Amino acid sequence: MPAERKIYGEDHRIFRDAVARFMEREVVPYHDQWEKDGVVSREVWLKAGEAGLLLSTAAEEYGGAGADFGYCAIVIEESTRVNASGLGFQLHSDIVAPYIETYGSEELKKAWLPPMAKGEIIGGICMTEPGTGSDLQGVKTRAVRDGNDWVITGQKTFITNGQNADLFIVVAKTDPSKGAKGTSLILVEADRAGFKRGRNLEKLGLKAQDTSELFFEDVRVPVSNILGEENQGFRYLMEQLPRERLLSAIRAVASAEVAIEWTVKYTKEREAFGQKIFEFQNTKFKLAECHAQAQMGRVYVDNCIELLREGKLDLEAAAIAKLWCSEMQGRVLDECLQLHGGYGYMWEYPITKAYADARINRIYAGTSEVMKLIISRYL
Ligand SMILES: Cc1cc2nc3c(=O)[nH]c(=O)nc-3n(C[C@H](O)[C@H](O)[C@H](O)COP(=O)(O)OP(=O)(O)OC[C@H]3O[C@@H](n4cnc5c(N)ncnc54)[C@H](O)[C@@H]3O)c2cc1C
Fold first, then answer.
1. Nearest residue CA, atom 2 of ligand 1?
2. Cβ atoms within 10 Å, residue 341
3. Which ligand 1 atom sits closest to the C-alpha of 161?
4. Beta strands 195-200 and 275-276: pairing type?
5. Hey, whose CA ends up nearest to atom 48 of ligand 1?
6. Which atom of ligand 1 is nearest to the CA of 91?
7. All domains of the chain, ordered by start, with CATH?
8. pLDDT tens for residues 174-185?
9. Among this protein's residues, is 202 annotated catalytic?
10. pLDDT tens digits, residue range 249-264?
11. Which residue's alpha carbon is at the smallest distance from atom 45 of ligand 1?
12. Which pLDDT score, from 0 to 100, does residue 4 have?
């Protein structure tokens, strides 16, 4: 029996059913094609906007649903259950939009959040560069003030929604002499002169996600495109990263849970040596271990969802959730794949794709090693 989830009420259940139906109708039939294309359609963004799946927590005056973070978690859980790893909705709704809503001027919020909620404008965030990822203090992209403009020069890589996005938050140095304390967050629209999209990168998993290189060659944007105050960008990143890390942990637990379900079903159908694979004691023990781990992760993550709803999720708890759940996901998916035998290596089986997709969870939003560094600071 899965652990009882106390964080959701009846309204959440109704929303979950609607999200599950949306996934079956608007995502599952198209996902294989999107994987071949390396990008999801813009149409699915518009449909998600119409169905109320985007910007759940944004205030109603900015086009959001004004809902609690549990609704964001539900979208992640339901997309994970159907292996829909191509959708960049979480990055857009639960990372990019909160930066704009928390730090942006009234003018920026009114300009960008309503079309983002409708799926008309797609968002991305550019932290990582070819030379720096874990160590964001090493960002080389420069934003230089020239009259009423910022002039931005630099290169970013591994950017989710990189081909589809219309609007990017760019992490840039506005005062390199101050190191991390000279970092700012600046909005760059994709139609600005000097902005160029590079390759849509080929990856081990997340095949339908348009993870891309981006180039900024003397891109001019108005000074009013800055989010919050100049040189405060690093502080804003530290404030928002717990939420981003919790998104990874939520996905990890949902992924482990559904992988166990697939594997129980598969091993109860498949036979070897005159009995169902499930009947071997090894299978039962492995699946019992997996289930126990997923349920322990579920309880910790649900507690973090509750903390975030109360505005109390801190760097330490988010790092623990991200570290443990993504590592647990890796172990569980490996065991589940093993129990599928050779079929577990075939792309047409959901476990195979989930296994490939899961690997990134220990790397992005901060690697496992970086999570350990953070946790150790609290010891
Ligand atoms: C599919 C995908 C999507 C992504 N989406 C985005 C996005 O939308 N926006 C964005 O900005 N970025 C994105 N990223 C980038 C991602 O966040 C970085 O890849 C990640 O933070 C790691 O940085 P790196 O690749 O530079 O690795 P590095 O920092 O070079 O790390 C290499 C290795 O060194 C280890 N290491 C580094 N520092 C330490 C230390 N102090 N102690 C011990 N070990 C250490 C790391 O843990 C890792 O094992 C994405 C990446 C991928 C693959």
1. 158
2. 14
3. 8
4. unpaired
5. 367
6. 8
7. 10-118 (1.10.540.10), 123-231 (2.40.110.10), 234-377 (1.20.140.10)
8. 999 999 999 999
9. no
10. 999 999 999 999 999 9
11. 369
12. 75
